[in-house]
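Aim 2 progress update. The chain analyzed this quarter is reproduced below.
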Amino acid sequence: MSDTEHPEQRPLENAAKSSHEKPARRKHIDFLPLKEQRALRDKEQIIKDCIAFKEANNGRLPRGEGAAAMKKLKINSRQTLLNLIERYETYQRVYPEEPAVNSLIQLWGRPPSKALTPEQQKVALGVYLTTDWQSVLEPEKEGDRAPVHAIKMRPRIDFVYQFLLQVFSELNATEDQLWHFLERQRQSDKVLFTLARYGEKRVWMEYIPKTSNDVKAPNDRWQSDGRALPLVVRDDKDPKLTFTVTQVIILDDFSRYVPVWILKPRKEQSHSKRRAVLVSKVRISGFYWLKHYGRLAFVLRLCTLITV
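Predicted structure tokens:
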């Protein structure tokens, strides 16, 4: 390229030389959802308009048209726009029988590594998902039976990798490639991995749907909850002492009615060396709203707090 030639006007020499080298991963627009297809067609039209502007301006994309295209494509870099145009034109030359819009499909991430053979993958999965192991020790005397102890453990990646090195002398994968393989398998079937490594209790806690609030009449089920109120109350015996209170309520699951509630004083840390602070009479005038129940906090609105 000469010193006076603009970078946008240089021929795509590398693309011409490597036109016979087709990329390993490709996607076709026909296999995408209709919404994504329409978005890609709109994006392709913007790229075609940019190519037409380049051809009309001696291979250079005008700044104004480029800025407008960047705004439509929601990109901030002019170089990103030029890379999209170059990718589109290269795809047209390399795959003339396919729609060039396929070049605009994002291929997120890098392709999966093939360093592990199918047999090595099976062994790695078996070791990683096995939690019942046996520890075989050397016998104290020759001829005695070797003592065997059952142990429970969840193998780590380094343990699995060392196991593969002992079994397969021709192992070419690295420990990071093994981690990526196991992580992809875990993402594809999280329940199976959780069951094998952590047991049924973890699966029940994380994946099994819990019982819904299916009560059909009042008084079928009550539940209680307590929350600290953002209020400060003075002690009636020693006005210098202040403390907060916790409201404990009983809630009917069907009607959301609160049949019983009570305020309990909380002992502050600053009063640990002094006598326990008790509240004799606390009267609340006003009303409150119950926003949520169960694990969520109760949202209360208190109008007046009077100590007698």
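The chain has three domains: 7-104, 118-134+148-206, 222-307. Residues 7-104 form one domain. These observations will guide the mutagenesis experiments scheduled for the next reporting period.
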